[in-house]
User: Which sequence fits this backbone?
């Protein structure tokens, strides 16, 4: 966990000291936008989502998160804070959004970017909305540097299957898929007939083993059984941990995610 | 065709479905892969065999519990969910998923068994002085409702979306990715529960004449109730703990077999166990054969098979089947 | 051989249903229990069958308390035919009759013999394979009686076995009970019908309000005064061919 936190903190480097505002300001209501706003305009953030204060769901260091007030994303709490801007996500319920609108609040709704270019665009538009365009460009520059740094030096693309949870693997056009490919790995999910993220049971993996399997919990029950069966079948599959926190969001998370993927690739190929 | 022959045919059917279950899946693995150094043997040994064994255990537990409960409650509509044990076991498992208790899998199994145990204790307490099975059904219904509400509550306060997804996925019931460890954990409980249930035959038969007549025939109704509670609690509880909630088997199997093996409760016990095993194996094979990358959830498959089948049965038989 | 109730008191759900009741039932004879609704007839019979534990008093067979008997032993000795004739599952008649063999640890051959003999005694052999749900009320009543007889009990306790039977079947069932008594079984029957009771009983136990009102042969117990006091009805007495006086209820009397 610690190196991960360090990575994320690095991703947020460039924030000044965290001095939360008390009313007005920006209220963010989901962990990904929390992370992005704290990277761009930490002083202007009045409240963040309660998920950012839970270790299983957060995308920011817990110590940093605890400095901020948290809401449970109910319209009541948010309206009471009289924010200048509410940042919601495409998962925010329509009734809550309608309530914000009725209260006359300014709402910025962010979707989940499906590739790096979309993430860049999102950073720019959020940076503009919070009045910190320069911070936005700085973040984009760091992301671009991470993309270049993690690009492969040779043409090898070891097939990689990336599990997001127990038996649920990433597949289809998503930011994760693009990052896997940018880091010089091959997307193995195509071999299992997955058009979008879905279940890949152990049987299928054993019948068609990829070179690398990534899992958020390699010591969990399913991962252990999978490792055992693959071993019995005589396959040498490289297993590595890929934490959930790197899977959830775009924006600043792209940097540590790409770095992790690149590191896994070089370990696999050595 | 006498009873022994029918039983023999049922055993053969179960064995055939067991063999099918070993071969069927996204990869069709014929028996010659068992010999020689075929890497697919790993799939058979570590995944399909434990899974088929677990399917037999789960199906037998559910089928037998259904037959026992229908006999005990004298009602062909009874099924293991009516006594609330599966709901409480599910609550235990969801609690461990959502609240993060228990290290990994053993923790989840332990919590589910604790839920089942709690349900059994509550049932025993609530029905201690009961004179009729109505109290039994009411107690079970209350437990099921309470457990269901608490489960939904836990899901609603889950600390992260992954816990929610995992809980909901687990609740749908599956034999997917179950391995030898799961068999080792569940088998003793299921075996013990089934053994206890097999002793209820004579008591259930006597109950067909009513409680007074049964007691006058020497049936020990207090002991019978304990056998029913403990037997179904252990067997169904362990089944749910390992595979999630799979319904319909306990309801449908005794129903299907009553015309074949007779309506006498004791005559249906062993056949219902076999029939439950056969049905579960068949459903699980289907789960794997459905096209697509993933597998259909067993609980879902069972409901999709069971409900229309039951409707067809009702239309065809009308009221005749019920008495 | 006698089944005795010695000052038996029964409490059910906080209500005293029988107080200080004493009676002796003899083997080889038919005792009929009569009384108005709520007099405690069914409770007394259930207690005699060992289904209710008395709050006071003792119930014994030849001096041996039935509460002290082992469950199986008591089940083999006393056959109880409850009032409701429901069979929960639609089994063939012979399976229902075979249930009467449950308390016996005898071999299969003995069980089959007992079942056949019980079905012969009740004239139910012809529907041995037919399901109990498809039989008429009278046929089902005979099958349930066969179930009790299959247990070869020494005591046959029947709770209103004539309910919902037509007159022919009522007479038929009473004949069979008489046949059992002739073979030495002690028969105790709860009846509602005063006329049937008068015709079949060797002894009558008349209950009222949870107490024994009268006990003895029919002509001693079924007097107009007793029936007026117990039931609150005036009866007309008619003599039958055998000279027995049959009480026919005529009118509600002033005192109730």
Assistant:
């Amino acid at each position: 966990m610690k190196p991960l936190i360090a990575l994320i903190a690095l991703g947020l480097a460039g924030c000044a000291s965290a001095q939360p505002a008390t009313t007005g300001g920006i209220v963010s209501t989901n962990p990904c936008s929390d992370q992005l706003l704290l990277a761009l305009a930490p002083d202007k953030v009045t409240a963040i989502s309660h998920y950012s204060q839970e270790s299983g769901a957060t995308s920011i260091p817990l110590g940093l998160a605890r400095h901020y007030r948290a809401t449970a994303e109910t319209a009541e709490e948010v309206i009471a804070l009289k924010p200048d801007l509410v940042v919601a996500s495409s998962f925010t319920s329509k009734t809550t959004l309608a309530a914000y609108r009725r209260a006359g609040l300014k709402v910025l709704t962010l979707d989940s970017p499906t590739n790096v270019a979309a993430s860049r665009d999102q950073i720019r538009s959020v940076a503009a909305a919070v009045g910190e365009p320069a911070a936005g460009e700085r973040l984009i520059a760091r992301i671009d540097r991470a993309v270049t740094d993690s690009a492969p030096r040779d043409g090898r693309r070891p097939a990689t299957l990336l599990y997001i949870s127990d038996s649920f693997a990433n597949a289809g056009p998503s930011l994760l898929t693009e990052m896997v490919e940018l880091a010089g790995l091959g997307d193995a999910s195509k071999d299992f007939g997955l058009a979008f993220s879905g279940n890949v049971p152990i049987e299928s993996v054993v019948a068609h083993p990829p070179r690398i399997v990534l899992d958020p919990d390699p010591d969990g029950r399913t991962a252990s059984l999978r490792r055992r069966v693959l071993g019995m079948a005589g396959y040498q599959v490289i297993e590595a941990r890929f934490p959930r926190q790197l899977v959830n969001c775009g924006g600043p998370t792209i940097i540590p995610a790409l770095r992790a993927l690149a590191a896994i690739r070089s370990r696999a190929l050595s | 065709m006498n009873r022994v022959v029918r039983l023999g045919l049922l055993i053969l059917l179960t064995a055939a479905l067991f063999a099918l279950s070993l071969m069927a899946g996204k990869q069709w693995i014929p028996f010659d892969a068992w010999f020689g150094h075929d890497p697919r043997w790993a799939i058979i040994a570590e995944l399909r065999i434990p899974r088929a064994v677990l399917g037999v255990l789960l199906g037998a537990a559910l089928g037998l519990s259904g037959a026992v409960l229908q006999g005990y409650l004298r009602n062909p509509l009874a099924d293991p969910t009516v006594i609330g044990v599966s709901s409480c076991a599910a609550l235990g498992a969801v609690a461990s998923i959502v609240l993060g208790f228990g290290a990994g899998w053993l923790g989840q199994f332990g919590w589910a068994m604790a839920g089942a145990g709690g349900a059994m204790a509550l049932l025993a307490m609530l029905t201690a002085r009961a004179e009729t099975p109505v109290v039994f059904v009411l107690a079970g219904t209350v437990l099921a409702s309470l457990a269901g509400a608490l489960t939904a509550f836990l899901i609603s306060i889950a600390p992260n979306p992954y816990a929610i997804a995992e809980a909901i996925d687990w609740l749908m019931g599956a034999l997917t990715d179950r391995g030898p460890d799961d068999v080792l954990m569940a088998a003793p409980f299921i075996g013990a529960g089934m053994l206890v249930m097999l002793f209820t035959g004579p008591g259930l038969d006597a109950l067909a004449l009513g409680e007074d007549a049964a007691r006058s025939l020497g049936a020990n109704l207090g002991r019978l109730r304990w056998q029913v509670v403990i037997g179904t609690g252990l067997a169904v509880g362990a089944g749910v703990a390992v595979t999630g909630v799979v319904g319909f088997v306990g309801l449908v199997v005794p129903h299907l077999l009553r015309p074949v093996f007779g309506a006498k409760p004791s005559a249906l016990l062993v056949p219902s166990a076999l029939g439950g095993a056969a049905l579960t194996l068949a459903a699980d094979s289907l789960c794997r054969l459905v096209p697509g990358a993933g597998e259909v959830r067993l609980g879902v498959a069972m409901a999709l098979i069971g409900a229309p089948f039951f409707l067809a049965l009702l239309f065809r038989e009308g009221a005749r089947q019920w008495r | 051989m006698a089944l005795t109730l010695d000052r038996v008191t029964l409490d059910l759900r906080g209500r005293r249903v029988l107080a200080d009741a004493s009676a002796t039932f003899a083997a080889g004879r038919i005792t009929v229990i009569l009384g108005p609704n709520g007099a405690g007839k069914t409770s007394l019979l259930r207690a005699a069958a060992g289904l209710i534990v008395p709050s006071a008093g003792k119930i014994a067979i030849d001096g041996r308390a039935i509460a002290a008997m082992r469950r199986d032993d008591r089940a083999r000795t006393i056959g109880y035919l409850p009032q409701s004739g429901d069979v929960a599952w639609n089994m063939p008649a012979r399976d229902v009759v075979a249930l009467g063999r449950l308390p016996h640890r005898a071999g299969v051959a003995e069980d089959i013999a007992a079942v056949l003999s019980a079905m012969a005694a009740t004239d139910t052999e012809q529907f041995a394979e037919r399901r109990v749900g498809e039989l008429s009320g009278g046929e089902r009543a005979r099958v349930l009686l066969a179930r009790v007889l299959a247990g070869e009990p020494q005591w046959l306790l029947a709770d209103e076995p004539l309910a919902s039977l037509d007159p022919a079947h009522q007479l038929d069932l009473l004949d069979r009970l008489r046949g059992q008594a002739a073979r030495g079984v002690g028969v105790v029957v709860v009846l509602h019908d005063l006329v049937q009771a008068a015709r079949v009983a060797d002894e009558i136990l008349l209950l009222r309000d949870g107490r024994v009102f009268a006990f003895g042969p029919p002509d001693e117990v079924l007097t107009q005064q007793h029936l007026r006091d117990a039931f609150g009805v005036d009866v007309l007495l008619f003599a039958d061919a055998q000279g027995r006086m049959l009480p026919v209820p005529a009118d509600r009397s002033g005192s109730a």
User: Anything to note?
Assistant: Chain B has one domain: 3-322.
